[in-house]
Amino acid sequence: MELRHLRYFCMVAEELNLTRAAAKLHMAQPPLSRQIKQLESEVGAELFERSARGLRLTPAGQFFHEHTLQILDKVDTTIAATQRLARSKRVMFGIGFVPSVFYGQLPLLVRELRQKDNVELVLAELTTVQQVKALKSGRIDLGFGRMRIDDPDVEQENLFDEPLMAALPEGHPLADTKPTLAQLAEYPLVLFPAQPRPSLADMTLGLFRRRGLKVTVAQEANELQTALALVASEIGITLVPEQVKRVQRDGIVYVYLADPGLTSPVICSRRKGEAPSPIMQEANAILEVLVENRRSGRYP
Known about the structure:
Layout (H helix, E strand, L loop, with lengths): L2 H13 L2 H7 L4 H15 L4 E4 L2 E4 L1 H30 L2 E7 L8 H9 L4 E7 L2 H10 L4 E4 L8 E16 L11 H4 L4 E3 L8 H10 L7 E4 L3 H9 L5 E4 L10 E5 L6 E9 L6 H18 L5
Parallel strand pairs: 3-4, 3-5, 7-8
Antiparallel strand pairs: 1-2, 5-11, 6-9, 6-10, 6-11
């Protein structure tokens, strides 16, 4: 399957008429009809209903059309960005991150790097597992996550350990307290991210299990914002890293925990054994200052 086949399909899907579609594609109708038949054969589904009144998308065709438009849009965007990068002579620098680390000082690092005239910064929301794969493939150059993963091609640096807090619905019985995990275990838990695993969800469950506490998972969510919305809806409570408290949301209160040592690491991942480029050296220098600010209490 080639990109031109997808473009042919989209044109026919928009026109629902082979003659008009062929004219817009500057080709004859019979070859276009054959291409569509071959595409249906390769996909393994009929994409069009054919009748004397013309063409009509089947349910499978509607689904394929929606996703094909997304694919072609992504391809066109990528080509345009690549052309801009080639013309500008800028260096591409990729950063992967999990959402829960983006509420602290990471935006300051991004802002500093974006001001560099010679850098084309690319951000990607990725789990720590996905970050490791992206580092090895060259898609990103730095990753910020919370899971320690052993991989011979990736080195990880624990920047600092961040206290965990409980996110509770407003008016919750524990809202004005400093609860223990044992107290929190008595309430339904909202777990995130649901997929992919392992993730912060497994770290959260492990904290309860290591203390012999059983929890009831009321709901799983893939996104932090969804988890907080579920908490605000009184579906349950959840544990979040401290910097998430900067997310001001109606119906949510954040409280520190009484148990000592309940933290979540912020981990920076890089390719192992790679000599740092000038851009990486700048990023490391900025990061060093930001981490020192955090450790010294100058920034929460």
